[in-house]
Amino acid sequence: MFKQVKQLLARSEVFPAAERTPIVSIIVIVYDMPSQAQNTILSLYADYQQGVQAGDYEVLIIENASPNLMDAGFIASLPGNVRYILRENPEQSPVQAINFAASQAAGDNICLMIDGARMLTPGVVKNLILGHRLHDRAVVAIPGYHLGKELQQVAVQNGYGIEAERELIASINWPENGYSLFDIACFSGSSAPGFFLPNSESNCISLPRDVWVDLGGYDPRFDLRGGGLTNLDFYKRACEFPGAQHIIVPGEGTFHQFHGGVTTGGEEEKVTEVYRDNSKEQYRKIRGQEYVCPETNPVFLGQFPEQAQRFLHYSSEMRTSNPDWIN
């Protein structure tokens, strides 16, 4: 498989460059999750995303090498606005892969998806572009969800896994019914406060190229396996960037698929707790303080599909019941 992918990469005509500058470059980081990443990429195709054309955006798949690479046949079939790059000697943290990908991006705006196992709803790309048209320093964030009725780090203890999730996805006739992902999901931990209280991160965050440059990208000091709190750190710095307008798209979402990840994959609970403690300690050493969610005055953009209404009600109740919310 590894040899097949390398042969594909040598054929540059398989991955032609965009004929015009994309409005947004969407970076997807992949490691040891071939089937989940394939679902994610399918949900970024122009025939799935609504209200956009392939020339409006590009997708950069950066796969950090593992024993389980994405399918070579799938890679060969990628449309012209999707590029694939294999990194043969990756670090344990995804930070370097993200920063490398940004250096390869052609778009005016850069969207980061640090976890390649997140399926998207059909209006994500359209609303990223609309957000950037609203403000020249828009930081556009898509809320996050877990597939399943409870957080996956909890569900896995009750028997939830890849096969159960495949059945769950099949039950909604995906990808034909993209917004039905809301029907089989719950808020992720980082989005658990709902739309109207501060969240700790977004796994689909887009910002102008010049803001990315001024921020210096992701901080390479976050070198723990999985990146520790690097995504939370970047989200906070981006949302609080001087002159930035934080924009939330509550009617769209990214949906985490189970894949044995460092925080949701069912590792022994004690090991997971140590990892989280180490991540928080590393953040304190780098930033000199505890992590707290960014405090912003966001603009809410987009439409609410019927399937997302229950999350709107939940968010309103959370805001009402926590008038003095503190991180």
What is the helix fraction of residues, given as a range? 25-40%
Instruction: State the end-to-end CA separation.
Output: 46 Å
Strand content: 15-25%
Order of helices and strands: HEHEHEHEEHEEHHEEHHEEHEH
Uncertain spans:
1-18
Radius of gyration from CA coordinates: 19 Å
* Tally of helical runs: 11
Strand order of the largest sheet: 3-2-1-4-9-6-10-12
How does the helix and strand content classify structurally?
alpha/beta
Largest sheet features: 8 strands, mixed
What value does the average pLDDT take? 89
Assembly state? single chain
**How many beta-strand runs?**
12
Which overall shape is indicated by the principal axes computed on the Cα atoms? globular
Structure description:
The chain is an alpha/beta fold. Helix content is 32%, strand content 16%. It has helices spanning 2-9, 34-42, 72-76, 95-104, 124-134, 152-155, 162-170, 209-215, 230-239, 269-287, 309-321; strands at residues 24-30, 57-64, 82-87, 109-113, 118-120, 138-141, 144-147, 185-187, 205-208, 245-248, 254-256, 299-300. The protein has an eight-stranded mixed β-sheet with strand order 3-2-1-4-9-6-10-12, with helices on both faces. Strands 5-11-7-8 form a four-stranded mixed β-sheet. α3 (72-76) links the parallel β2 (57-64) and β3. The chain is globular and about 55 Å long. The termini are far apart.
